[in-house]
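Below is how a single chain appears once it has passed through the pipeline. First comes the sequence as given, then the structure the pipeline wrote out for it. We keep one example in the README because the format questions we get most often are answered faster by looking than by reading.
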Amino acid sequence: MKAIVSTKYGPPYVLYFKESKKPALKDAQVLKTNNEIERLKLAKSNLRNDLIDRVIMSRVYQVMKGRVDKDIVLIRDKLSELQHEVSPFNIYIQKEVPTLESLLEYYRMSEFLKII
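Resulting structure:
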């Protein structure tokens, strides 16, 4: 993957292309997490079947279903974090763009004050 890099402040010609490693998505972890979600969904389905067959009482079903639902939510959050891994470029943009916007507003104000 190619990236545009700037190592010093200056005009556009100080920018250059640099070969960089493509960010690796943790495919094995994503697959493992998806499998875990499917396993928990199956467990929830089995609990429902046990309740229907009167193998377990409704109170026990509610407690166990609550635990499974909580685990599913936690694992889905983990999966979401794995899939939306933040790159160093995104971190840089999140830090610098608000600063640049503030700087732009400052320059606009200074131009406005020059007119007055």
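Residues 88-115 form the longest helix (28 residues).

See the next section for the split statistics.
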